[in-house]
């Protein structure tokens, strides 16, 4: 009883206190505004820990460390520049061409002493690709690419792993190739470096990103090579490609939009794990799952990359 009376008095006092606050200054407590913010980068890591630890098992801790570490770039040599001079300069920095080492030498890994496995047969056109990286544990950075004497940039800095899908595509000389989600253009450029594309269509839904792709092509590939390889840039919705052009390609690369994991762990800006982008994130698997092959008769070589999209 005493407790009840006590609570009644407290409520009255609280109300009286409230009444002394001028009406225009009274406000309801909004939890959403007062709750401490949960950074998108932390939400990303939480999601990755849950999903990838199941998916990758024992490998996840080392993948996690690498995702949380600073990005290491590979330098893709531009074959349309003075490629031997550029390669020699990169060698002087103690970087190594991992593509050709894997193909020609299969040399023992210095750390483990084990011989690297031979590359898959699909790397047929890859001798033309040269991509330099620093050795494991070496965190040196490449100087920014420069405009060479032949009027094009000497190398393109990219995540070296981005070259693997291009190698796995198994291009053959004279292939007609479609890069369906191509911007900003690292893989398109690598496709051209193989010298195998007779006809290359590079597409991206985003017109601004397709503009970046155009700039990359202009900076790295001379006009006559673009003409010879019949390079064409479009900005269509890749999901409708089959309706627009049908089944004319030997190889199709589809680098689908994804959760850009490293970016999601390091940057708040434009982070797909932001609360406001939840719907977009949840729709990603549907967007990724869609393939233009649904609309073509002949099976084409199709790669869905980075389809490890996470939804809350
Ligand atoms: C992972 S990025 C591609 C990176 C690129 N392959 C590279 O190597 O530089 C995915 C791209 O897909 C594009 N995209 C998203 N939805 C698309 C669609 N429906 N059709 C075509 N492109 C789309 C995005 O604009 C984005 O540039």
Automatic annotation (TrEMBL):
Principal subcellular localization: mitochondrion
Compartment annotation: Mitochondrion
Source superkingdom: Eukaryota
Catalytic activity reported: a cytidine in rRNA + S-adenosyl-L-methionine = a 5-methylcytidine in rRNA + S-adenosyl-L-homocysteine + H(+); a cytidine in mRNA + S-adenosyl-L-methionine = a 5-methylcytidine in mRNA + S-adenosyl-L-homocysteine + H(+)
The keyword Membrane belongs to this UniProt entry's keyword annotation: no
GO CC terms: mitochondrial large ribosomal subunit
Biological processes per GO annotation: rRNA methylation
Chain positions recorded as S-adenosyl-L-methionine binding sites: 181-187, 204, 237, 255
One Gene Ontology MF term: RNA methyltransferase activity
Alphabetical keyword list: Methyltransferase, Mitochondrion, RNA-binding, rRNA processing, S-adenosyl-L-methionine, Transferase, Transit peptide
PANTHER family: 5-METHYLCYTOSINE RRNA METHYLTRANSFERASE NSUN4, NCL1 YEAST -RELATED NOL1/NOP2/FMU SUN DOMAIN-CONTAINING
Protein name from the UniProt record: 5-cytosine rRNA methyltransferase NSUN4
Native species: Neophocaena asiaeorientalis asiaeorientalis
């Amino acid at each position: 009883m005493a407790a009840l009376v006590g609570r009644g008095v407290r409520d009255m006092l609280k109300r009286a206190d409230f009444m002394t606050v001028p009406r225009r200054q009274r406000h309801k407590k909004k939890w959403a505004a007062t709750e401490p913010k949960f950074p998108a980068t932390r939400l990303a890591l939480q999601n990755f820990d849950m999903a990838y630890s199941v998916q990758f098992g024992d490998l996840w801790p080392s993948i996690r460390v690498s995702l949380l570490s600073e990005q290491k770039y590979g330098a893709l040599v531009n074959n349309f520049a003075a490629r031997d001079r550029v390669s020699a300069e990169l060698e002087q920095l103690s970087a190594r061409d991992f593509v050709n080492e894997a193909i020609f030498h299969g040399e023992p890994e210095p750390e483990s002493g084990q011989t690297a496995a031979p590359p898959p047969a699909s790397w047929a056109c890859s001798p033309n690709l040269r991509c330099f990286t620093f050795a494991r544990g070496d965190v040196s950075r490449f100087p920014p690419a420069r405009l060479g004497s032949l009027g094009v940039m000497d190398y393109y800095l990219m995540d070296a792993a981005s070259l693997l899908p291009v190698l796995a595509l198994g291009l053959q000389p004279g292939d007609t190739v479609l890069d369906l989600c191509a911007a900003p253009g690292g893989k398109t450029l690598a496709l051209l470096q193989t010298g195998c594309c007779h006809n290359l269509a590079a597409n991206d839904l985003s017109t601004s990103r397709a503009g970046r792709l155009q700039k990359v092509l202009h900076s790295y590939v001379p006009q006559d090579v673009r003409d010879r390889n019949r390079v064409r840039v479009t900005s269509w919705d890749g999901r409708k490609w089959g309706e627009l052009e049908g089944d004319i390609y030997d190889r199709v690369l589809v680098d689908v939009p994804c959760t850009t994991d490293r970016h999601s762990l390091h940057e708040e800006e434009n982070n797909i794990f932001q609360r406001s982008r939840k719907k977009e994130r949840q729709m990603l698997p549907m967007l990724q799952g869609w393939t233009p092959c649904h609309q073509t008769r002949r099976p084409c070589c199709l790669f869905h990359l980075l389809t490890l999209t996470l939804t809350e």
